[in-house]
Amino acid sequence: MYYTVQSLPRSTTRTTEYIIIAPDARVFYRVVFKDTQTLAGQFVRFDAYRLPRSAAFGVYEFKAILTLGRESRIERWRFVVVRNPTGTALLRDEIGH
User: Where are the domains of the chain?
Assistant: First the structure.
């Protein structure tokens, strides 16, 4: 998640949460990072994760939640795991990229 802090009068708690929701609506993956935000500026927070080959085919949702102090922002992306003609899994986002 990329984000910009325009001003920060004092240090504040930062929580970044990443969630992957499976086609059957269960939480497939969830990780939470807590830290202190001390500076204004542009930042990126990420977690490298690879879906296992055993992941069910279907539409998944990736949700990123950034909380600074008492202010939160939520972003969601949908992607699909499909089977190609050779039988191996491919990842595609909802708009075909």
Answer: 2-93
State the Cα–Cα distance between residues 80 and 97, nearest whole angstrom.
11
CA proximity to 36, closest of 61, 68, 71, 78: 68
pLDDT band at residue 97 using 50, 70 and 90 as cut-offs:
very low
Rounded alpha-carbon distances, angstroms, from residue 13 to 6, 33, 72: 16, 11, 11
Q: Which residue, among 18, 16, 43, has the nearest Cα to 30 in the 3D structure?
A: 18
Distance of CA 81 to the CA centre of its chain: 16
Q: ∠78-94-83 over CA atoms, to 5°?
A: 100
CATH dotted code for 2-93: 2.60.40
Q: Which of 37, 40, 30 is nearest to 15 (CA)?
A: 37
Nearest CA to 18 among 38, 42, 48? 48
Q: Is the pLDDT of residue 84 over 70?
A: no
Q: What is the pTM of this model?
A: 0.78
